[in-house]
Amino acid sequence: MSCDPCSISETASYPPIKGADHLGWGMKNRLSRLIGPDGRCFYLPIDHGYFLGPTRCLERPGETIAPLLPYADALFVTRGVLRSAIPPAISMPIILRVSGGTSVTGHDLADEALVASIDEVIRCNASAVGVSVFVGSDYEKQTLKNLADIVDLCEPFGIPVMAVTAVGKELERRTAKYLALACRIAAELGARVVKTYYAADDFEKVTEGCPVPVVMAGGPKCETHREVLDFVHDGLQKGAIGVNLGRNVWQDAYPAAMMRALRSVIHEGLAPDQASELYTELAHSEKGRV
Predict the structure, then answer these.
(1) FRET pair for 249, CA 20 to 30 Å: which of 24, 63, 209, 265?
(2) Considering the domain boundaries, does residue 89 fall inside one?
(3) For 207-232, how does the pLDDT look when each residue is reduced to its tens digit (9 = 90+)?
(4) Is the pLDDT of residue 6 over 80?
(5) What is the DSSP letter of 266?
(6) What distance in Å separates the CA atoms of residue 71 and residue 82, rounded to the nearest whole number?
(7) What sign results for the dihedral spanned by CA atoms 217, 219, 221, 225?
């Protein structure tokens, strides 16, 4: 997806964005940069260090993502890495993580607070912000209040908020029933986009019950590239508009090939079989250059 406004015709029309009927110009403009003309999106998250530290393959984030950026629609990042590792001339939309304050060594990952002000969001020229919510945890009210507070701060400036329905270490909560509950609550509190996990069973209940666009998270590293392509394709068929995948891309043996294969599923409509063949072809080429 081109981020150059000069490449967009003045008469270009975008498909209706779910829940965006009565938005102001600024909000519509930012969402049109985050969601492509085909109604799909591919976000590349590199915010993992805010609670994991120097994650494998992300020790030097700027170097890791340099060959991947041409295939992403937006970058999900913390302000620290944005300032230290991302070139200011980048034209790609930035989704700024604004919640945090916990780590894997702490007592509970859900004990988050807002860690960036609206002034900081504007200084970073973010197209959107991302904040985690932990529905069902001991910190449910606190994290939902974080979401509501950042929505109140961002709405006057036309900046969309992406709610991240996190579950911490309790991965068994990734059922369609739980995800549908968390996504709907996030939308009710004002999130313009919701990022959530894929559920193999009844994922359509998650997307159908959410009045704003749903973007799939990658979660822990999958065993094979085909497993990733399969769940992304299935989730798109069941109502998701795209993905926010990190570890399943930059921890892959051939990350550029993975990016291109995923983009072919998301934006070009390739089936998993076709995308897998593309991955294999590109991986051989990538291997030959090493």
Answers:
(1) 209
(2) yes
(3) 999 999 999 998 778 999 999 999 99
(4) no
(5) H
(6) 18
(7) negative
Residues 6+ apart with CB under 8 A from 274: 264
pLDDT at 9 over 60: no
Q: What is the rounded (10 degree) CA torsion for 57, 62, 68, 73?
A: 120
Q: What pLDDT does 221 receive?
A: 82
Closest C-alpha to 240, from 274, 270, 276, 206: 206
Tokens of 226: 């085909």
Look at residue 289 in the predicted model and tell me its pLDDT: 57
What pLDDT is recorded for position 170? Answer: 64
Taking a C-beta distance cutoff of 8 angstroms, is the pair 148, 190 a contact? Answer: yes
Q: Has residue 52 been placed in a domain?
A: yes
The domain of 233 spans: 17-289
**Which SS3 state, helix, strand or coil, does residue 19 take?**
coil
Q: What is the CATH number of the domain that holds 189?
A: 3.20.20.70
**Gap between the Cα atoms of 148 and 14, Å rounded:** 28
Total domains in the fold of the chain: 1
Active-site residues: which are they?
A: 195
What is the longest distance spanned by two Cα atoms in the chain? 53
CA distance linking residue 47 with residue 43, whole number of Å: 12
* Residue 6 is assigned to a structural domain of this protein: no
- Distance between terminal CA atoms of the chain? 28
In the chain, the percentage of residues whose pLDDT exceeds 90 is 84
Question: How much is the pTM?
Answer: 0.90
